Amino acid sequence: MNETGGPHSTSPWARAASASRIDPAWGWLLAGAALQLVANGRWVLALATWLAPVGWLVFLDRTRPRVGVPAALSVFVLVEFVAWRGLVPAPGMLYYLIVGTYAVVYFLPFLLYRLLASRVPGFAATLVFPCAWVGLEFAFQQWVTPYGSWFSIAYTQPGFLPLLQLASFAGSAGISFVIAWFAAVAAYTLRPGAGAGAG
């Protein structure tokens, strides 16, 4: 029997080790950020565009909103500052204002996913993110920004023939929807207990 006398009690050393253990969710944030650097902007790897949102979504799924949302938003904005450097023709602080605005707007679908997807039953929850992405992207490009669809993720897939055929009747929004939906489905399957809760 240890000092506290309980059969399930732990030593102060064990409690300290447990408290210092890094939450694996932060690994998903790191993965999302690393992939985001080459998902759109100065460096583009087409596959990264599909995979980067998965890291952000899984991280948001596995953290409390008051912790996960500010952390993800901060990292997302910083990554975009790096990814678009040299491409946006704006000097000094104007560059950070433009890219920061775009980053916040393009983070909103992730925020809506975190706030709403858990309230939608079953597989239908996977539609929250792509619908939010396409809706916000369309509204922002049509009525807010003078740069049009310049930042759209649809332009990262020039060599993917099936998506180009989709664009012939669904436009760039169709490509964005498919990419975002893929990420949402992947995040859904990675939720703890997703298989048991399906039905």
Walk me through this protein's architecture.
The structure is a single chain. The chain is mainly α and 199 residues long. The protein is 65% helix and 0% strand. It is built from 8 helices and no strands. The longest helix is centred in the last third of the chain and has 29 residues. The chain is globular, with a radius of gyration of 20 Å. 30% of the residues are buried.
Q: Topology, please?
A:
Layout: H1 12-20, H2 25-36, H3 46-61, H4 65-83, H5 92-116, H6 128-143, H7 161-189, H8 194-197
Helix pairs in contact: 2-3, 2-4, 3-5, 3-7, 4-5, 5-6, 6-7
Distance between the termini: 47 Å
Main sheet specs: none
Mean pLDDT: 85
How much helicity do the residues have? 55-70%
Return the string of H and E elements. HHHHHHHH
Tell me the β content: under 5%
- What is the tally of helical segments? 8
- Tally of strands: 0
Shape descriptor reads globular
Rg, nearest Å: 20 Å
| Class from secondary-structure proportions | mainly alpha
Query: Which residues sit in consecutive blocks of at least 5 with pLDDT less than 50?
Result: 1-7, 16-20
Brief descriptors of the model:
199 residues, globular
